[in-house]
Amino acid sequence: MFKWPNNDNMHQLSSVLIPALEYNGIKYFPNYSTSWHFDDKVKQYFLLKSINAPIVSTNVFFSKKKATGFVNRTDFPKIAKLSKVQLSNGFND
Fold first, then answer.
1. Cα torsion for 72, 78, 83, 85, to the nearest 10°?
2. Average pLDDT of the chain?
């Protein structure tokens, strides 16, 4: 049984540990197929979209330029969320 960590260092370790356990045939829960989308709104969005689940209007950006362009031409209010990767490494241009 694996308890998902709430800090970045342990979360990063779990992303390495889970595939290694699976590769070596060690059974654990949650396994990769039930946890790959944990705490990642972009992965969750694409998963829900792929099964035609009802979702709110969503925009996903992978570049600062595209996100800035959207902000300059949209109406507000909006809700935004950055991933941990974006928060720690900055937006990729």
1. 20
2. 82
Confidence tier at 76 by pLDDT (50, 70, 90): very high
Percent of the chain beyond pLDDT 70?
77
Instruction: Give the separation between CA 2 and CA 21, rounded to whole angstroms.
Output: 11
Chain-centre distance for alpha carbon 92: 15
Amino acid letter for position 92: N
Instruction: State the Rg of the chain over Cα.
Output: 16
pTM here is 0.69
Tokens found for residue 85: 């990767």
Closest residue by Cα to residue 83 from 42, 49, 47: 42
pLDDT of the residue at 48: 95
